[in-house]
Amino acid sequence: MCSNYLLVGGKHFTTQQPLTDRHKTNIMEEVLIKNKQKYLYDNYPFEDSPKLTDKKCCIHCNTIFKVGDYKVFKDKRCDEFIYCPNAPTCNGTVIDWFSLD
Ligand SMILES: [Zn+2]
Question: Which protein residues have a CB closer than 5 Å to ligand 1 (ion)?
Answer without folding.
Answer: 58, 60-61, 84, 86, 90, 92
